[in-house]
């Protein structure tokens, strides 16, 4: 059974409250599993600050403590502890989300580099292919023009239609390449 709160006297027989908190941290590996309110007869701001930094939720001086004040201090210690726990859980969840986002960002950056490399390869391929296709098409158009000049004799109407088909097809392919 776990208590709701530990009300601990600062001056213990074997150690003081700070030493107890430190031993608790060593044993558990983090802050105490329940809220701790430190009770003392000595009003010392330096000790109070140190105790609170070690993980206690409150530092109470016995001289000014009343039953009602002590009850209220314990309730406050429990509430502070609960809020601190919730904040730690939220912080851990945020850190986990941030880590996942960083992993996703790294993956996206890798994909962007791969995409840029693929785009460069595609552009190089298209540049080479368009050059390799333009050269023979220009030659075909040039030979069609030479045939149309009738240097080796006159052309029949059917031959002229075939030359026009050659020109039309070649220009169409050049337009697609461009």
């Amino acid at each position: 059974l776990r208590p709701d709160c530990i009300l601990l006297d600062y001056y213990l027989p074997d150690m003081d409250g700070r030493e107890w908190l430190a031993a608790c941290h060593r044993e558990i590996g983090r802050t105490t599993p329940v809220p701790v309110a430190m009770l003392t007869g000595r009003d010392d701001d330096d000790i109070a600050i140190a105790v609170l930094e070690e993980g206690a939720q409150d530092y109470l001086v016995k001289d000014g403590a009343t039953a009602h004040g002590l009850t209220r201090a314990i309730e406050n210690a429990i509430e502070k502890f609960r809020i601190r726990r919730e904040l730690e859980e939220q912080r851990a969840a945020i850190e986990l989300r941030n880590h996942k986002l960083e992993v996703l960002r790294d993956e996206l950056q890798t994909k962007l580099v791969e995409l840029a490399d693929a785009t460069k390869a595609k552009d190089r391929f298209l540049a080479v292919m368009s050059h390799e296709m333009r050269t023979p098409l220009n030659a075909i158009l040039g030979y069609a023009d030479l045939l149309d000049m009738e240097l080796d004799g006159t052309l029949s109407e059917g031959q002229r239609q075939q030359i026009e088909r050659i020109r039309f097809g070649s220009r169409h392919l050049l337009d697609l390449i461009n």
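The mean pLDDT is 90. The longest helix spans residues 67-148.
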